[in-house]
Amino acid sequence: MPDCAENNCRKEAGFVHLHVHSEYSLLDGCARIPDLIETAAQSGHTALALTDHGAVYGLVPFYKRALAKDMKAIFGTELYIRNRNGQPYHLPILAENAEGYRNLLQLSTKAHLDGFHGKPCVEIDWLAEHSKGLIALSGCLKGEIASRILVGDAAGARRNLECYLDIFGREGFYLELQRHGLVEEERVNKALVTMAGETGVGVVATNDVHYVAREDWRVHDVLLAVQTLSTLTQKNRLRLSSSEYYLKSPQEMERLFADLPEALRNTVAIAERCDVRLDLENLHIPVYTPAGGRKIGDTFARLRELCLSGAASRFGAHIPSSVSARLEHELKIIGEMGFAGYFLIVHDIVSYAKRNGIPVGPGRGSGVGSMVSYLLDISTVNPLDHGLIFERFLNPERISMPDLDIDLCHEGRYQVLDYIRKRWGREHVAHLGAFTTLRPRAAVRDVGRALGVNQKLIDRLAGAIPAYSRDINQVLKESPRLQTMLREESQAGEIVRIAGRIQGLPRHMTQHAAGVVLADGPLSNYVALQRAGGEEIITQADMHAVEDLGLLKIDLLGLRYLTIADRTVRWVAEHEGGGGGMDDGGGITGCGGSAISEIEDIPLDDPAVFAAIGRGETIGTFQLESSGMRRLIRRMRPENLEDIMCICALFRPGPLGSGMDESFIRRRHGLEPVSYFHPILKPVLRDTYGVILYQEQVMQVAQVMAGYSLGRADILRKAIAKTDQAALEREGDHFVAGARTNGIPGGTAAKVFALIREFGSYGFAKAHAAAYARTAIRTVWLRCYYPVPYFANLLSLNYGWRERFDQYLSELHYLGIRLLLPDINRSEVLFTPEGGSIRAGLGLVRDLGEKAVAAILAERKRSDYRSFADFCSRMSGALSKKAITHLIKVGAFDCFGGTRPGKLLALQGLWDSGRKEAEAERARLMQGQLALPGAERMDWTDMTAGAQGADRRGRVCDAFVSYSPPEFSDAERLKMERELLGFYLTSHPLDSYEEAIRALGVRSAADVGELEHGDAVFLCGCVGAARGNRTRDGKRMLFATLEDKQGRADLVVFPTVLQKYGHLFAANNDRPLLVWGRIDRTEQEPTVIVRKVQEFVKAQ
To answer: How much is the average pLDDT of 373-377?
Structure first.
């Protein structure tokens, strides 16, 4: 960091920008920090401030970029100060020293946690509490002093100035002058200069920077329209009124304020005073103390002690020399890097989870490559079994925080989080923040809307961009379709150009899916905090900034499949030999004599399991269930754990897109010769048939061929992953030189380096594959041997996840496992095993809330319900009439005999006793419309009080139920199932059409997700939900779902098609329709644009 006193902050230039917004003024600034720093450096600046709106998201990347350019970073933010009337005003503040920096963080934290009123606001009292070490500027036209001047309240402006002077002192507050060409600014500037002369307060010149160059104003204007969901032509929208809000050179600012040299000099004086240096060298992780608070003398000694204890537990008295050597190697690196406490903390967390019966995965990420992790029981994978490399996880030649990730049962994750907060203090713990960014497709849509472009053109442009692409300019190079649109549509070019400028900008700060951050003191001393929409507190810094600050980050990922597996294993332990195995459901019989009491007991080498995997029978299992994965599995025919590891590594966009999977499989089956480029690489690449599949192989190739240390080899791996061209050029020369030293020809070495550069970028962490393959195999094992409890848990944890749930229902049909209707005496909340079938739960029934289900189950614990009358008597007042009606309609009381219409009639009589509806019902009965014996003798008006009332209610129920009017038809029952449970349970309307559907050769609705934009598709199914809408010109259109036995597809029916076929959608009554259309992928989820519809019977 340059010393401003020595360099005089380029006094020859005489100006420093103190009011600057970057991309971290979300959807308000479009000046990216790298561009800001680069442009500032080129124009002669040696210092620059960052004052983003209401938050401090960008401080760490700003500091690092400035440091790299030998430029002083001045830390600040533009606060929203809330006055006593609740009006927020702008107030830029700058950190003068370390205390000021801490107060900057505290104010931003307090604004978000305690002062959020649409914006993160700071009360004047809080400002007074945290003013030390801060310099404040009066702000732009939205500052309170300027606002009062503009409305003619000179006295109020003066009072406001006195208030700020009381808080910051005369040396800590400046009146801010801006000149962006606005008339209002000149009025304010004149008043401020006068005020400064009268009070002796300093003035300071600023430019309210929101973009880097003048020509960026159009892009910024569009960005503001995106933020406010408006169009550029809208009046009174948020906008900056000129193109002057860019990063002006010192010379431009000197000319602009030539009449006020003091305002320029004060920018330099402030910059000289501001001297804050972030500590990016030291760690700030909690000091480990064992539970109970007792101190330990030496964390490293404690780590060694636990590792040796773990080794004895895993290997017995005679620990293999290879294990001891690896342990000593790792401990040496951990000790030298100061991470002993880190491992002890993670060990503490994992131990807590396991002690409390919370399932923990076998490991995750590169940390699986650590022997220390294995011996501490953080991971259950012995790294020596797979040749895993410790330096891939913790590199002594590249100082960075280790990253031990933990997979937990998703239900137990919150309990573990609560333990961490209690163990290390709530102020020391927060969730990790993460930015959502503008992806290319979303950017095109946002820009198109802001420009007021026709929606059809926007849809066409968005449809030409792959959903997960990251660079619209790259798409443009590779897409003839997009190039054609740009030539043919005059507006398309501007949309794509501006979208290319705003893509990647942060849009929103949200909670990271798994990350938790810990510190050795209150977190707000190191990083500002905020809420993530709800009550959860997150960091105002992403994972990279948190790591740079030396804070401890742990990923605690809630994994549904761990929960499913754990529930199934516990069910097996409780019911072993009591049914539910494949002998009940059909298929594999028994479980090979294996007794399992926990997930880790499940064997990884069962031939029957690998036979099932090879057949693609993996729907509902971890990592192996997608249709693309099942196709890969069937081609590869895996036989062991290592094969599943390879499959996990191959099934990713890079390897699949490069053809690596084809070459790998051909080599595996002997259809293509295996080559290694050089014999020295054979031991490294033998297991993957000469294909560089894993990141660890990249490191090993560099080690054995070019003499790299594993630490330097990891640096090479990272350069390849980041496609760091400059680093790769350097490493290429080093690699070839090292290979030559080993006697390998330079040409061969160059070819090998080109190979690892190409395929290494697709490499997968072998350590990660080793852990995930274990969980995958174990879920297949449970599916094979205990499909009924496994699928019961699978359905329970995926109920509401539409696509997956439908697929699992279809798989049950394939396996021959019946689904049973809800039963008032047998059902639990969701799905439960029952013999060789699965019983649907009461919690699935529409309008039956959690409290109602809990009340039914609690009462049932006392004794089963003996009859419908008994249920009504015991649950009187606990359930609504609608809830009981729905229970009747889905068959929950079928166990009591009689018909559902009879029970509905009984309920009507009971519920409406003494009401007009009951009288009408009695009249109907008396008139013989329903000949119910004894109806004329019933006292309908007194059936509510006491035991006598209960007896009368019972007699009414019995009478109605025993009368048993005709049962609902099959079609009626199916319709009720669909409406009240959300799916067809006992059968499906398409069951009787199956042969004819197969003969037609239609696609399954589940296949829609695999088709490309524009693909033709032919479907058959029943219409589910349908919702009418209107186009921009007021014409009717329709959104609907088409459901078959495998899944659902979203349909879009435009006006011309709806006009022709609308009657089929309206009249459709669970009769199948044939639908022809094309796939549309302009949104995240694919839809079918309908072109033709035909009723199935007529099409036949």
So the answer is: 97
Q: Are 185 and 249 in contact (CB under 8 A)?
A: no
User: Does residue 941 surpass a pLDDT of 80?
Assistant: no
Per-residue pLDDT, 490: 85
Contact 985/809 with Cβ under 8 angstroms?
no
| Residues forming beta bridges with residue 1093, ordered by sequence position | 1075
Sorted by sequence, the CB contacts under 8 Å of residue 986 that are 6+ apart come out as 819, 821, 973, 974, 977
Q: How many CB atoms lie within 10 A of CB 1041?
A: 18
Q: Which residues does 602 contact at the CB level (< 8 Å), separation at least 6? A: 569, 594, 596, 777, 778, 781, 782
**Domains of the chain in sequence order:** 4-212+247-273 (3.20.20.140), 299-427+517-560 (no CATH), 435-510 (1.10.10.1600), 561-782 (no CATH), 818-981 (1.10.150), 991-1099 (2.40.50.140)
Mean pLDDT for the stretch of residues 447-457: 91
Asked whether 352 and 410 are in contact (CB, 8 A), the reply is no
Report yes or no: 621 and 594 within 8 Å, Cβ to Cβ. Answer: no
Count of other CB atoms within 10 angstroms of residue 871: 25
Say how many residues make up the chain. Answer: 1100
Q: How far apart are CA 62 and CA 57, in angstroms?
A: 10
The predicted pLDDT at position 927 comes to 52
Q: Are 556 and 430 in contact (CB under 8 A)?
A: no
Give 121's strand partners.
Answer: 80
Write out the two tokens for 467: 């959903």
Cα distances from 372 to residues 66, 322, 385, in angstroms, run 38, 13, 14
The residue whose two tokens read 């929203």 is 80
Per-residue DSSP letters for 695-736?
A: HHHHHHHHHHHH---HHHHHHHHHHHHTT-HHHHHHHHHHHH
**What is the model's pLDDT at position 460?**
85
pLDDT of residue 1049: 87
Helix crossing, 455-463 with 492-502: angle to 10°? 60
Residue 158 CA: distances (Å) to CA of 90, 127, 141, 164, 863: 17, 19, 16, 10, 78
Residue percentage of the chain with pLDDT more than 70: 91
Query: Is 651 exposed, middle or buried, given 0-12, 13-18 or 19+ CB atoms closer than 10 A?
Result: buried
The separation between CA 392 and the C-alpha centre of its own chain, rounded to angstroms, equals: 26
**pLDDT per residue over 247-292, tens digit each?**
999 999 999 999 999 999 999 999 999 999 999 988 899 988 887 6
For the residues 285-311, what does the mean pLDDT come to? 85
HEC string of 868-920 equals HHHHHHHCCCCCCHHHHHHHHHCCCCHHHCCCHHHHHHHHHHHHCCCCHHHHH
Rounded mean pLDDT of 842-864?
94
CA of 24: how far to CAs of 53, 754, 1045, in Å? Answer: 8, 38, 47
The two three-digit tokens of residue 231, written as one number: 């169009």
A 10 A CB-CB count for 274 gives 25
Residues 268, 15: contact at Cβ < 8 Å? yes
The per-residue DSSP string of 562-579 comes to HHHHHHHHHHHHHHTTSS
The answer to whether residue 243 scores a pLDDT higher than 70 is: yes
User: What CA–CA distance (Å, rounded) separates 515 from 543?
Assistant: 8
For residues 910 and 850, what is the distance between their CA atoms, to the nearest angstrom?
Answer: 24
Which range among 546-555, 899-908, 1067-1076 has the greatest average pLDDT?
546-555
Answer yes or no: is pLDDT of 362 > 90.
yes
Rounded to 5°, angle at Cα 629 from 625 and 633? 105
Is the separation of the CB atoms in 909 and 959 below 8 Å?
no
The span from the CA of 622 to the CA of 774, in Å, is 10
Whether 28 and 505 have beta carbons less than 8 Å apart is answered as no
Q: State yes or no: pLDDT of 225 exceeds 70.
A: yes
